[in-house]
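Reopening: DUF5673 domain-containing protein still failing for me.
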Amino acid sequence: MNKIYNTWIFIISLLTLPFAFAVGLNEVFGIFGLKIHGDRFEYKELVFGISAGLIFLLGATRSSRKWSGIKIVNQLDRFQFNTTISSERKQRVILNNSIEVLGFFLIGTVFIIFSKDAVFISLIFVIFIVDSIINSLRGILGKKYRVGMTKKAIVSVDREVVAIYFKGLKRISITKDQLFFEYNNDLVLDFQLNTIPQDRQEEFMRLLRVNVDDKQVYFSGFEEE
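Support: Ran it again with your exact input. Result attached.
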């Protein structure tokens, strides 16, 4: 989920940066065979506004999903199983979030260097950075990044929000530390078992076998099938 949003944010930014360069340095910007003179282009505010709006919409949607996921998975009384993410997963989340923050900082800096007219885009990236830092601190230090299981689904929330429902399953397989959930409509979802602390994995696997009817769902790769 997070990767998809970040990819589109990067694509839109990449498409807008040459235009910001042309406007900021009064260069000629070429697109679809047209030559646009940056210093005389009267729609630059519109272009930057559309770009800023799309980037903000993507980032806001991503942030909303993450905060909503945190709220849901921390309603402990709704879950049969609930635990904080493992130390291994925390380290990976911290690394990826740091790379994400650095990327936002660099893109925002480049926009403001290229053109002061793109200041709103840079400010949006500042908002993303603050939001990511607060979310990370809340999740790691506040122990809000968690994995939960109900009778109907598995919910995992950290930098990614993962919901795996048991309805419609036809097969669950395990390979090393990765679970694969295959559905009747050919959808396949995966879950990293090492997201869960080692001392809680046995409990997690036991409840998974309890909640999923093995008469309707085939289990593959498990020790006791």
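The CA atoms of residues 72 and 155 lie 9 Å apart. If you still see a failure, please send the error message rather than a screenshot.
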